[in-house]
Design goal:
The complex is a heterodimer of chains A (about 160) and B (about 200). Chain A is mainly α. Chain A has ten helices and no strands. In chain A, helix 7 packs across helix 10. Classes of the chains: A mainly alpha (about 160), B mainly alpha (about 200). The structure holds zinc ion (ZN).
Amino acid sequence: MNHDELMSALDEFHDGELDPSARAELEFHLRSCQDCREALEARQRAAEFLLSSAAAAYEGFDAERFSRGVMSRISGEELRARLPTWRALLSWRGWLVPAASFAAAAVAMWFLGGFADRGSLAADMLAEQRGGVVMMDWLDEPTATSVGDLESSALALR
Amino acid sequence: MSKPETPEIPGESELVGRARKGDRDAYAELVRRHSPRIFALCLSMLRRRESAEDAAQEAFVKAWKGLRRFRGGAAFSTWVHRIAANACQDFLRRHSRAREESIEGPPLGDERRLRQAANALGDQAAKVEAADLVGKILARLSSEHRLILVLREAQGFNYAEIAEILDCSLDAVKGRLKRARQSLEENMRHFSSRGGV
Ligand SMILES: [Zn+2]
């Protein structure tokens, strides 16, 4: 290898990545070549400079405390992941069952002729909404088909 | 042959295996062992201790979540360094405005003071000032150059390990390292009027 080739191999030499024969050749060349020696010294200075930066980082670092911090962050994140999010609570799917119950209650009211008593309509609707989920189950019952059944069940809800 | 009385210190692969099965104590031990180096890497990248600690924590939390995907063949250390390097790059992207003000480099008025500190790098009395200077010179490099220099010179990874951490080829490592060194040497010359750094 000539001077230029050896010069370009200086990084690998400095990093210990050169194969033994190339390494021996470069070591021999370094004895007689001032330019290559200076280039290598510049790399060594840079290395010391970077090492000193890492050494400063270790001062005052508490691995025990840090580890505890990581583990509590992991626990916190896992706990949050298990809780339902506000987004899920507010999504349309979350409201599907109560809304369907409300609609079913309104239909039942219409069947019962409850609309005649307009004064108590709002109060009735509210009461039906509160019992919405129960009404859904009740409407699914195959036996609850006659108006009489509906009437008695609706009365029981009030 | 009788077994030694003292309890054996669990090896790295044993700890990783236990942690993969959800053993938190094993993972806490892995964090204790690897956090000083990971923190040093993050500090070199981000300079502020609070930011570095935050990024390092984020890296270990991500590593825990991704442990099942971790291939046993690679070293845990290399793998966590890769996650931490990405966490630092994410942090720098998120805080790119703040970086321009506080990480990218000192205001020009500081140069005189920095030059004095650069010349005194070998002096024990100027140790704190020098450490500050090291950080400031590093901050003048691109994050890509800073990262590869720290991985090689401060963390002591070889080319193959760096290629794995940066997810690139060996030739890319060599090329990037060469350019990073040129940039660092230029910056060191810039801060040292008589080449004292
Ligand atoms: Zn030469």
